[in-house]
Write a structure and sequence with these properties.
It contains 9 helices and 16 strands. The protein is α+β, with helices and mostly antiparallel strands.
Length: about 450
C-alpha cells in the first residue's frame, strides 16, 4: 500500500446548506457552514509508523557516521518518501550569522559539497520567511507583491508566500521549506524540497505528514548532536587522562604549562586558551602559556601582563558559574587582550552565541588554596556557549595545573637540596682526604729524620 495515499477514516453522516455532521472513528463532529473535504477514507497509521521507523533507523546508524553523510541520508529518505527530486538541508552558523547548506540531493555536482564550500544564506532572510512561526512554507513564483523578495540575495530565489494558487501544478520556481526547531522552539535549520515527481502541489495530507517529518528530522539531528557531545566528552576525558602532566617532572615549567594549555584547547574545542600566573617579583599577572593557531597573536599575547588589582575585579559573584567565572560584559582590563585576538571584528552576540567580550576565567590554586594564577578560555568552536561539562573539565585542568606547578616546585627544591647535600658530602670527603694525606706525609718525614 502506498503510505502517502493513506488517510484517516472519516465519513460524512449528513450535510445541509449551512450545517454538517461528520464521523471520525468513534467521534462525531458537527458545525455550521460547508465542509471542505481534504482527506478520504483510509488509515494514517501505516504512514506515521513507517516514517517513524525510517528515522529510528537513520538515527541508529547515524551515530557512527560523519554529520554530512547523516544529513545526506535524511534528505535522501525525505525525497524517496515524499517523492521530491531535489532537497537541501542547512544549519545555522552562529559565528557568521548565516544558515549553511550542509547537504544537497538531486543537484548535479553538489551532492558531496563540503562544509567549507557550502552555500550560506543570511539568517535574517530565513527568519523573515518563517516570521509567523509556522514550520512549513511554500515559496511560489506568483507571490503577493506585499511579500519582500528575500533581500535580493543570490542564494535565495525571488519567491514569497501569497494566496494559494488555484492551479495544482507545481511551477519550476516553487520551493517548499521546512523549519527545524529545537525543544525550546528556536529555529536552527531548514530543509528545502523542490520538483515533486508528479509535478503537482502537495495535498493537505502530505502537508500534515511533512510537518511530522520536520519534527522527526529536528529530533534526529538533536539526538545526533547529543550523542556526539557524549562521545566527545568521553574522548576528552581519555585525552586528559592520557596526557596528564602532573607527574612529568622531567619537563621544564614552560614546557609543562604549554602542554597543559594545548591539551585544553584540543580537548575542549576552544580556539584560544591562555594561562597567567602571579609574579611576586613584578607584582603583576604574567601570561606564561598561550594555545592558538595564529603564531603572531600567540607571541603578542605571551607578552601581556595584567595589573593584579584590576584583574581581581573580574572575580565577582555576578560572573560566578560553579568554581569559574563567565565574563559576559566589556571589561577595560581585557581590552588589549581582546584587541589582539579579535581585532575590530565584533559581530557576535551573547544572546545567540559567544560574544567578543565573553571569557571563561578559572582560578588556579596552590597547596594552601591560595590563587596563584588564572586559566582563561575564549572563542569556542561554532561560537556556542560552553556546556557545564566543558566548564567542569576546565576546572579539573586548572586543578591539575595547580598540582603540576606545586609538584614541579617541590621537585626542583628537592633536586637542589640533593645537589647541595651531595656537594657538602664531596666537600667533607675532600677535607678528610686532605687531612689523611697531610698526616701520612708527616709520618713519612718523621720516619726519615730519625
Amino acid at each position: 500500500m502506498n503510505i502517502l495515499n493513506a488517510h484517516p477514516k472519516r465519513s460524512f453522516i449528513k450535510t445541509t446548506s449551512n450545517t454538517f455532521c461528520a464521523q471520525n472513528g468513534n467521534h462525531k463532529i458537527s458545525g455550521k457552514g460547508s465542509p471542505d473535504v481534504v482527506i478520504e477514507k483510509g488509515s494514517a497509521g501505516p504512514f506515521a509508523i513507517g516514517l517513524i521507523a525510517e528515522f529510528v533507523s537513520l538515527v541508529h546508524f547515524g551515530y557512527s557516521e560523519p554529520l554530512n553523510l547523516f544529513l545526506f541520508r535524511i534528505l535522501d529518505a525525505l525525497c524517496q518518501v515524499f517523492k521530491f527530486k531535489r532537497a537541501t538541508l542547512a544549519l545555522i552558523d552562529f559565528r557568521r550569522d548565516v544558515f549553511v547548506k550542509l547537504a544537497m540531493v538531486g543537484y548535479p555536482g553538489q551532492e558531496g559539497v563540503s562544509v567549507r564550500s557550502a552555500v550560506a544564506v543570511p539568517r535574517r532572510v530565513v527568519e523573515r520567511i518563517f516570521h509567523d512561526q509556522h514550520r512549513m512554507k511554500v515559496l511560489r513564483s506568483d507571490q503577493d507583491p506585499q511579500y519582500d523578495k528575500a533581500e535580493e540575495h543570490p542564494a535565495v530565489p525571488e519567491r514569497g508566500s501569497g494566496r494559494r494558487r488555484r492551479s495544482a501544478e507545481w511551477n519550476k520556481r516553487d520551493l517548499l521549506l521546512l523549519s527545524l526547531k529545537d525543544d525550546n522552539g528556536r529555529p536552527y535549520g531548514y530543509i528545502s524540497l523542490d520538483e515533486p515527481w508528479d509535478g503537482h502541489m502537495p495535498t493537505r495530507v502530505i502537508w500534515q505528514n511533512l510537518e511530522l517529518a520536520a519534527r522527526l528530522v529536528g529530533m534526529s539531528i538533536e539526538s545526533y548532536y547529543q550523542f556526539s557531545l557524549l562521545a566527545r566528552k568521553n574522548r576528552r576525558l581519555s585525552h586528559m587522562l592520557s596526557n596528564a602532566n602532573i607527574f612529568k617532572l622531567h619537563l621544564g615549567l614552560t614546557e609543562l604549562l604549554n602542554e597543559m594549555v594545548w591539551s585544553a584547547r584540543h580537548s575542549l574545542d576552544f580556539n584560544l586558551v591562555t594561562l597567567a600566573l602571579m609574579s611576586k617579583k613584578s607584582q603583576r599577572l604574567e601570561t606564561k602559556a598561550v594555545a592558538c593557531d595564529d603564531k603572531i597573536k600567540q607571541k603578542q599575547l605571551l607578552a601581556l601582563t595584567f595589573d593584579m588589582s584590576e584583574f581581581s575585579h573580574l572575580v565577582r559573584d555576578d560572573y560566578l558559574i560553579g568554581k569559574s567565572y563567565l565574563v559576559n560584559r566589556k571589561e577595560p582590563v581585557l581590552d588589549h587582550f581582546k584587541q589582539i585576538y579579535y581585532g575590530a571584528d565584533n559581530r557576535l552576540n551573547l544572546d545567540d552565541g559567544w560574544s567578543q567580550n565573553a571569557l571563561i576565567l578559572v582560578p588556579v590554586r596552590g597547596r594552601d588554596e591560595k590563587t596563584i594564577g588564572y586559566f582563561m578560555a575564549d572563542d569556542p568552536q561554532e561560537a556556542r556557549l560552553p556546556t557545564p561539562d566543558a566548564v567542569q573539565m576546565l576546572e579539573i585542568l586548572a586543578d591539575q595545573i595547580g598540582v603540576a606547578i606545586d609538584n614541579r616546585i617541590m621537585y626542583v627544591q628537592a633536586k637542589e637540596r640533593l645537589a647541595k647535600a651531595n656537594a657538602d658530602l664531596v666537600s667533607r670527603h675532600n677535607d678528610v682526604a686532605t687531612q689523611d694525606e697531610s698526616r701520612d706525609f708527616k709520618k713519612i718525614v718523621e720516619h726519615f729524620l730519625r
